[in-house]
Amino acid sequence: MLKTNYAKGLGLMLACLLLGASMWMSIILGYTNTSWKMAIDAFLHNDGSNEHIVITTVRLPRALIGASVGASLAMAGALMQALTKNPLASPSIFGINAGAGFFIVLVITFFHVSSFQAFTWFAFLGAAIAAVSVFVISASGKEGMTPIKLTLAGTAVAALFSSLTQGMLSANEKALEEVLFWLAGSVSGRKLDMLAAVFPYLSMAWIGAFLLAPKVNVLMLGDDVAAGLGQRINMVKLAAAILVVLLAGGSVAVAGPIGFIGMMVPHIARGVVGTDHRWLLPYCALMGGILLVLADISARYVLMPQEVPVGIMTALIGVPFFIYIARRGILKK
Amino acid sequence: MKKKYLSLRMTNYLSFLIDKKAVIISLVLLMFGLIVFLVSLGMGSAYISPLNVAKTLFGSGTDMEKIVIHTFRLPRVIVALFVGMSLAVAGAILQGMIRNPLASPDVLGMTSGAAAAVVAFLALFSDQNHSLTISIHWLPLGAFVGATVSVLLVYMLAWKNGISPFRLVLIGIGISALMQAGTTFLMITGPIYRASQANVWITGSIYGASWKDVAFLVPWALILLMISIVSARKLNIQELGDEIALGVGVSLQRQRLFLLLLSTALTGGAVAFAGGIGFVGLMAPHMARRLVGSSFGALLPAAALLGAILVMLADLVGRTMFAPLEVPAGVFTAALGAPYFIYLLYKSRQ
Question: ipTM value of the model?
Answer without folding.
Answer: 0.78
